[in-house]
């Protein structure tokens, strides 16, 4: 077990503390076992789980997101799963608003709140709030046109030149965030990282205990490999085909998520199955690395496995007392 704390974490300015409702927040890279830990903690703390995942919020995105099943929930209520249709917009601000209402509801019923998910921006929005950055619709449209013409990886290299820290956690194919970071820089002459860090480490909107699972890299990658194989065997490509048949195409945000993007390309004839699988594996491992980079900016108590975490009796006792006293 280790604890890490960034000296100058780039936290957005909060819009004010919402309420002194304690949150237990489970973080970590994809395939680290967050969902199972969240269920176990919810049962131990008489709680309910709030999902912080930007793709699991959409209906019909099940296999490729590793969405927890009814059986795996073991009777523990889960919130903000399957909340939106694939064509509906959803972002960190929407999540923050929805999560605030869910937390109030859970707390009003005398239950503990367990937040679990791998979308770092959502968790940061919940704990620290969001703040306004400079924007210009015309410039954004110009950058969007450029990224379509020149490619996201080329534009990502440009971002690396002006804001290497932002580029370290923004994926080379994440067109939305690449455009936004470049837009902020071109409008202000300052980097996204500088503007966010300027707000400093402000008081959290909720008191929160962050617990993380950080497996040894070799073990994590092996788990990712096995998980992707299982997802494909369970019919991930069929899930994507079904979404396409219902009119949901690559222009939609969730269809650009890792795996869904590659499978769409395969179904379009641009990739063969072997290359598709190889790209999904590579992209997923890179995503796990970015997740760890993101969460290292927060004050997290880290464990190497779900088993190590759940065997820490001292932690469980302290969480029980902490949530009980709230």
Please describe what this structure looks like.
With 326 residues, this protein is an alpha/beta fold. The protein has 2 domains: 2-131 and 199-325, 3-Layer(aba) Sandwich (Rossmann fold); 137-197, Histone, subunit A. It has 15 helices and 7 strands. The chain has helices at residues 34-45, 70-73, 92-108, 120-128, 137-150, 152-162, 164-169, 175-188, 192-197, 217-233, 236-245, 260-267, 273-295, 306-310, 313-325; strands spanning 2-4, 23-27, 47-51, 78-79, 112-116, 208-213, 300-303. The chain has a 7-stranded mixed sheet, with helices on both faces. Helix 2 links the parallel strand 3 and strand 4. Helix 5 (137-150) crosses helix 6. The protein is globular, with a radius of gyration of 20 Å.
CATH architecture of the largest domain: 3-Layer(aba) Sandwich
The CATH topology of the largest domain corresponds to Rossmann fold
The level of helicity is: 40-55%
Terminal CA distance reads 26 Å
Taking the sheet with the most strands, its summary is: 7 strands, mixed
Classified by CATH, the class of the largest domain is Alpha Beta
**How many strand elements?**
7
* Strand-pairing-aware structural class: alpha/beta
Widest beta sheet: strand line-up: 1-7-6-2-5-3-4
């Amino acid at each position: 077990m280790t604890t890490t704390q960034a000296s100058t974490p780039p936290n957005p300015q909060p819009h004010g503390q919402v309420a002194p409702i304690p949150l237990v927040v489970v973080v970590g890279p994809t395939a680290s076992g967050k969902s199972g830990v969240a269920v176990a903690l919810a049962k131990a703390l008489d709680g309910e789980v709030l999902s912080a995942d930007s793709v699991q919020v959409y209906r019909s995105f099940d296999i490729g997101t590793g969405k927890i099943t009814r059986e795996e929930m073991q009777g523990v209520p889960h919130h903000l799963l399957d909340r939106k249709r694939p064509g509906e917009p959803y972002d960190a601000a929407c999540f923050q608003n929805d999560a605030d209402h869910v937390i109030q509801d859970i707390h009003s019923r005398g239950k503990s709140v367990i937040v679990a998910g791998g979308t770092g921006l959502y968790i940061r929005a919940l704990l620290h709030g969001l703040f306004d950055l400079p924007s210009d619709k015309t410039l954004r449209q110009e950058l969007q046109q450029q990224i379509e013409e020149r490619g996201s990886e080329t534009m990502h290299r440009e971002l690396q030149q002006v804001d290497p820290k932002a580029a370290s956690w923004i994926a080379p194919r994440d067109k939305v965030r690449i455009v936004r970071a470049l837009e902020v820089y071109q409008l202000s002459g300052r980097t996204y990282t500088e503007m966010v860090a300027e707000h400093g480490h402000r008081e959290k909107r909720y008191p929160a205990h962050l617990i993380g699972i950080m497996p040894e890299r070799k073990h994590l990658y092996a788990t990712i490999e096995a998980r992707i194989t299982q997802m494909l065997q369970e019919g991930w490509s069929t899930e994507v085909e079904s979404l396409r048949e219902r009119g949901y195409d690559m222009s939609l945000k969730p269809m650009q998520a890792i795996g869904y993007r590659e499978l769409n390309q395969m179904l379009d004839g641009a990739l063969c199955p072997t290359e598709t699988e190889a790209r999904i594996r590579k992209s997923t491992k890179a995503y796990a690395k970015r997740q760890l980079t993101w969460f290292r900016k927060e004050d997290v108590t880290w464990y190497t496995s779900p088993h190590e975490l759940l065997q820490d009796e001292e932690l469980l006792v302290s969480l029980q007392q902490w949530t009980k006293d709230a």
